[in-house]
Amino acid sequence: MKKFVLPIASILLINTLPAVAAEHEVGQKNKAFTAKELRIKVGDSVKFTNQDPFFHNVYSLSDLKTFDLGSYPKGEFRSVVFDKAGKIPVECAIHPNMYMDIIVEK
Question: This protein's superkingdom (predicted)?
């Protein structure tokens, strides 16, 4: 039986590879986000999917991550990558009662 030995340089390289970013999904259904709070890691993305029969416009004015996904209809989605740690409030410009927080952790 042969032994398989990795050179030290290979082991060091494996330990320094970046973590793979994850994609999370939050729907908009019944004029509400499907999550009130979502915890993710720096570099992860969130896919905002409209599940309602009318338009939504997801946005955030946070200093950590400002974005405006524009209006989009049922069945469509928009994605955002979160690259800084912190708490990011997210709202819908069309439905003022729609609110959630995205907590981005290191």
Answer: Bacteria
The closest of 85, 91, 83, 90 to 103, measured between CA atoms, is 85
pTM of the model: 0.81
Is the pLDDT score of 5 beyond 70? no
Sign of CA dihedral 87, 61, 93, 52: negative
Instruction: Tell me the sheet residues that pair with 31.
Output: none
Beta-bridge partners for 99: 91
CA-to-CA distance for 9 and 51, rounded, in angstroms? 49
Please give the angle made by the CA atoms of 56, 61 and 64, to the nearest 5 degrees. Answer: 125
